Amino acid sequence: MVSTDKNQSSVAVFILLGFSEYPKLQVPLFLLFLTMYAVTVLGNIGMIVVIKINPKLHTPMYFFLSHLSFVDFCYSTIVTPKLLENLVVEDRSISIKACISQFSIGVTCVVTEALMLSVMAYDRFVAICYPLLYTVSMSPKRCALLVTVAYSWGITGSTILTYSILILSFCETIIINNFVCEYSVFLFASCSDIHFSELIFSIFANFNAFSTLMIILTSYLFISVTILKMHSGSGRYKAFSTCASHLSAVTIFYGTIFFLYCFPSSNNSWLVVKVGSVFYAVVIPMLNPLIYSLRNNDVKKTFRKLKELKIISQ
Question: How far apart are CA 256 and CA 131, in angstroms?
Answer without folding.
Answer: 33
